[in-house]
Amino acid sequence: MRYTIEEIAAALDATVLGAPGLVVTGAAEPAEAGPDDLALAMDPKYSDGLARGGARAAIVWEGADWQGLGLEAAIVVPRPRYAMSGLTRLMDPGPEIAPGIHPSAVIDPSAEIGEGAAIGPFVVIGARVRIGRNARIANHASIAEDTVIGDDALIHAGVRIGARVTIGDRLFAQPGAVAGADGFSFVTPDKSRVEEARASLGKETKAVNASWTRIHSLGAVEIGDDVELGANSCIDRGTIRATRIGNGTKLDNLVHVAHNCLIGEDVLLCALVGIAGSTKIGNRVVLGGQVGVGDNLTVGDDVVAGGATKILSKVPAGRVVLGYPAMKMEQFIQASQNWRRLPRLMEDVRSLKKAVSNEDTDD
Amino acid sequence: MRYTIEEIAAALDATVLGAPGLVVTGAAEPAEAGPDDLALAMDPKYSDGLARGGARAAIVWEGADWQGLGLEAAIVVPRPRYAMSGLTRLMDPGPEIAPGIHPSAVIDPSAEIGEGAAIGPFVVIGARVRIGRNARIANHASIAEDTVIGDDALIHAGVRIGARVTIGDRLFAQPGAVAGADGFSFVTPDKSRVEEARASLGKETKAVNASWTRIHSLGAVEIGDDVELGANSCIDRGTIRATRIGNGTKLDNLVHVAHNCLIGEDVLLCALVGIAGSTKIGNRVVLGGQVGVGDNLTVGDDVVAGGATKILSKVPAGRVVLGYPAMKMEQFIQASQNWRRLPRLMEDVRSLKKAVSNEDTDD
Amino acid sequence: MRYTIEEIAAALDATVLGAPGLVVTGAAEPAEAGPDDLALAMDPKYSDGLARGGARAAIVWEGADWQGLGLEAAIVVPRPRYAMSGLTRLMDPGPEIAPGIHPSAVIDPSAEIGEGAAIGPFVVIGARVRIGRNARIANHASIAEDTVIGDDALIHAGVRIGARVTIGDRLFAQPGAVAGADGFSFVTPDKSRVEEARASLGKETKAVNASWTRIHSLGAVEIGDDVELGANSCIDRGTIRATRIGNGTKLDNLVHVAHNCLIGEDVLLCALVGIAGSTKIGNRVVLGGQVGVGDNLTVGDDVVAGGATKILSKVPAGRVVLGYPAMKMEQFIQASQNWRRLPRLMEDVRSLKKAVSNEDTDD
Predict the structure, then answer these.
(1) Phi first, then psi: what are they for B168, rounded to 5°?
(2) Across-strand partners of B262?
(3) Exposure letters C283-321 (e unless 16+ CB within 10 A, then b)
(4) Chain B partners of C159 at a C-beta cutoff of 8 Å?
(5) Which of C40, C252, C302 sits opposite B209 (nearest CB)?
(6) Low-confidence ranges of chain B (pLDDT < 50)
(7) Which of B35, B341, C25, C306 is the most buried (most CB within 10 A)?
(8) Does A259 participate in catalysis according to the annotation?
(9) Alpha helices per DSSP H over B246-341
């Protein structure tokens, strides 16, 4: 693809300095940029890189001496990270999926697929499925019976959408994502050891687990608009009602959302996050990589949990947490430093005991 | 589907009150139930929901005033959670897979498939595979050569069963599950840094890792009866002998079981659990979400590990553990509270040192 | 397959004792070995097993009385674990994929595939893909446009290689592995709560997360020679430049490598490891199962991190770490023991305070 500096600046709602008609074909880091690349140099630390690389045009920081840096054209943006969004959207070629429906796809005659679809080889679409306009569905995706998907979906290779799942507009589903597996829910005829252990906080229990009987998942999964499902991520269906994922929420790779969970809007779940059954996550929550949340809990709106936080009890809205178990972030940082000092602390206490006991003896 | 209250009660071995012939078509939470739904109101806390919803029939708690709650029929069950099992099994429509073998499936002529099979599009079944009766195999599943699977298997879309794996009756495999990948086993010509670090408990080591050479996996995977494999879960084959999963054991989504592991019977492995190589897990063990177990360890029968427990050494039978490293649950809870109090404790010790030192000086 | 003891010894560069022409058909643990198995008895602890089993030949420890143990032939190796590599490579039958290209595969006419390929059913290969010699590609694998893969690749069922990915020689990709999903990168128009929380170390923030806008991934994934990708593992593409995996690096099942990461050579990433965006991992690093590494960090060469270590800050080269947050392994072990002793320590400090305060009062 070819883009003029003017076109790029317009897409970013940004200011052009220098030659607006200069053409670039891609973006690159400043030191690696060639003459046809737009260098991304949004910070003064990239001055050296710009000098080493061969870019003629760049996105630069505010106040940069673009001419002194040897550029013929520059784009200035107020919030560089946000500008990356517009720039990369403009330049992303997207996956190559031929327009129309590949002859090898197996699509039930009762399925309704909107205009503008591109459906790849070996896609399977079940009975009574409804898919909106401009769907791009890559090879090997499976969409089971009675599922409804909105407009402008991009579904990558090998995605599995289970029966009766509903999804809003503008879905991004990365390869191998699974929405609508059965929930992990089993029960014993009598009270199980797990139930007793929870009730007694782990004190010795007398129950013996018998064989587990399956509770089937009759509920579906309901997913809002503008949701992203990461590669090999999994969302289980609910037991009676649906598991829900709110508008604007993004799941990273290998995330697990269990049955009956209610995930709010504009939530970020980073890679390897696991959320256990029937837990409620508020709006705008951000859970870092490998965060775990126990079952039947509530995480309030705007909570931020740092990487690997293990949430074992309710978290009030707005809190920033870290650790296992989760605590306020500053508390975790301080306590971690102290943890490393524990050996010396224990030594101090031993000395104090000796000193005080000697005094006692001395008296 | 349509069910009379009498049919449902019979399936649950439960008592009917009121109109046994009343028909329902599904189950719902009390507040969301319509006139054709069976409301699930097994606890007095659902009284208000029942009043708000439109159900004419419900499963109710023992002693409920079902007529006062406006119901025409009620089912009373002694252990509500267990009743969910029978009810959901009765009402689960299961995946729509047309009877017989889809013409696009590639099945080796030497494979033997029992009566009553329903095999979907693009399924691949290798040479000499034997599958029992009533198998339901959804689209895109792959079953490699010499694998044996028992009766009544339900294999969802995109499941990968490797060569020479053996599986008992009543398998449930969720989408994307992998049984029989190669083990993660590599070796260096000379002793590696990891081997030295383990031997010295992390003290500085002199070894330098050279390139890793692969130890191939000659063993298979042996899976018992009544096993469930979660979405995108992985079980690796053994090095010389098989990795084993006992009867009645259930794996949740994204669980990893490494080469040579021996997992007992009626074990629950919740989502994102990882069990490293050659570890033995006893019978009736329950590992919560994100639990990790190191390699070459033994976890005794009936152990329960809470969410995110990291098991780095042997756990005796019957223990309830939590934490990183794993400790008794009550110990973890107490120590976690104390951990948060560490800053104050350190302050106290500083004051004590000062006080005692002053006394010493005063003397 | 049939192997003489002499052939096996030659493959291992090892010494034969006894009958070099004796034939075995497989390998087994000593106690389970039959007369056609090579028993693997590299340690004196296997003496009893050898006696109980029926092997006529074995790999034995140095100095073993192989005749006294009832063997007709024995192979002696200096480093048994390393010998496993040669032995298992020799005996691994590999997956059955018929030579040539299965007629159901959909291969773009512009793709170039080297000599000796075996490509299974339903494989999809995109435009302009180049694959080297002797590729074995199992059923259902997808290789997207413009991807380049070297010689001798073994790609298992359902692997997804995204567009423009480059991979060296001798790739092993286990079922369901994904290389080249989009990075998880989102931005808000104004500074987000996460950005503020990081800057203030978790102190209360005023920002409110608005909806997330996607930063698309224009970069690819570059993978070196001799790399292994575990089952359902995921590597995301870079934002502007490629995510890189060095020569000889091995990823276990369910590993996540985020956008822009630079992973060195001969690295081992065990199951469920997650590495956040733009992090650099040095050469010969070993990360145990469930290890997490935060974004924008550097982990130096030869670092070893034990299972479930959570790396939240830079780790210098050569360090052996454990814990959350990561600390030196010996420090973790000592502090963990102390952690369990915290309750008693607090009791001691309470007593000391009382004692010292009494003294003060007494004075």
Answers:
(1) -80, -155
(2) B244, B280
(3) bbbbbbbbbbbbbebbbbbbbbbbbbbbbbeebeebbbb
(4) none
(5) C302
(6) 363
(7) C306
(8) yes
(9) 329-340
Does the distance separating the beta carbons of A186 and B89 come in below 8 Å?
A: no
Residue B67: count other Cβ atoms within 10 Å of its Cβ.
Answer: 11
Q: Tokens standing for B337?
A: 């509270």
Q: Could you write out the three-class secondary structure of chain C?
A: CCEEHHHHHHHHCCEEEECCCCEECEEECHHHCCCCEEEEECCHHHHHHHHHCCCCEEEECCCCCCCCCCCCEEEECCCHHHHHHHHHHHHCCCCCCCCEECCCCEECCCCEECCCCEECCCCEECCCCEECCCCEECCCCEECCCCEECCCCEECCCCEECCCCEECCCCEECCCCEEEECCCCEECCCCCHHHHHHHCCCCCCCCCCCCCEECCCCCCEEECCCCEECCCCEEECCCCCCEEECCCCEECCCCEECCCCEECCCCEECCCCEECCCCEECCCCEECCCCEECCCCEECCCCEECCCCEECCCECCCCEEECCCCEEHHHHHHHHHHHHCHHHHHHHHHHHHHHHHHHHHHC
| Token couple for C340 | 């369990």
Contacts of residue B234 in chain C, CB cutoff 8 Å? 176, 230-232, 253-254, 271
CA–CA separation, A174 and A219 (whole Å): 24
Contact predicate A74/A54, CB 8 Å: no
Residue in A closest to B310 by C-alpha: A324
Residue, of C108 and B80, whose pLDDT is higher: C108
Is pLDDT above 70 for C208?
no
Count of C-beta atoms within a 10 Å radius of residue C62 = 10
In angstroms, the CA A123 to CA A142 distance is 6
Q: How does pLDDT run across A142-201, given as a tens digit for each residue?
A: 999 999 999 999 999 999 999 999 999 999 999 999 999 999 999 988 888 788 777 777
User: Shortest CA distance to C301 belongs to which of C286, C289, C313, C291?
Assistant: C286
* Chain B nearest CA to C339, separation (Å): 7
Element (H, E) at A334: helix A329-340
Query: Following CA atoms B76, B81, B85, B87 in sequence, which dihedral angle do they give, to the nearest 10 degrees?
Result: 30
Q: Which residues of C are part of the catalytic machinery?
A: 259
Tokens of A199: 């009730």
> Residue A346 and residue C345: Cβ atoms within 8 Å?
yes
Asked if residue B318 lies in contact with residue A204, where contact means CB atoms within 8 angstroms, the answer is: yes
Nearest to A271 among C162, C258, C324 (CB): C258
Q: How confident is the model at residue C337 (pLDDT cuts 50, 70, 90)?
A: confident
> Percent of chain A beyond pLDDT 90?
83
Encoded tokens for B37: 């739904």
Determine contact, residues C301/C289, Cβ cutoff 8 Å.
no
DSSP 3-state assignment of A176?
coil
B346/A345 touch (CB, cutoff 8 Å), yes or no: yes
Q: How far apart are CA B224 and CA B170, in angstroms?
A: 9
Structure tokens at A70: 């040897």
List B residues 292-351 in contact with A (Cβ-Cβ < 8 A): 302, 304, 306-308, 318, 320-324, 328-330, 333, 336, 339-340, 342-343, 345-346, 349
Q: Residue A256: which H helix or E strand, with range?
A: strand A256-257
CB of C155 closer than 8 Å to CB of A152: no
Kindly determine whether residue B340 and residue A334, on different chains, have CB atoms separated by under 8 Å.
no
Which chains have 3 or more CB–CB distances shorter than 8 Å to chain B?
Answer: A, C
Do A230 and C234 count as a contact with CB atoms less than 8 A apart?
Answer: yes
Query: Which amino acid is it at A237?
Result: R
